[in-house]
Amino acid sequence: MPKLIITADDCGLSEANNRYALDLHERGYLTAASVLANFPAYRHALELFRGCQELDVGLHLNLTDGLPVTQFGPAHSHLLRGDRHFRDKFSLYLRGLFFNKDAIHWIRSDLDFQMRR
Known about the structure:
Elements: E1 7-11, H1 15-26, E2 32-36, H2 42-49, E3 56-60, H3 90-99, H4 102-116
Parallel strand pairs: 1-2, 2-3
Helix pairs in contact: 1-2
């Protein structure tokens, strides 16, 4: 077991980020990576890291940036910006939950889908 674990956070944001993480791992600087399931390059990250036996890869659950991975309706629009991305301010996000309890079911569904992806 390594004495120091160094994790590349937010893999899946872009293919370039994924390649940087792989390069750092191959040079011995990186021991783990977390992958965002709701960004365009998440599949690229999984494919890239598939052959890395020594790299611990985990899921980075995300409710504050990017697009949700599940369908959402008008009842949940207060949790999203006008461009349908998650609100990037977690305090606004929590306030939206406080005023709409039905949103909790949708959030649970989105997190579950992120884990199954």
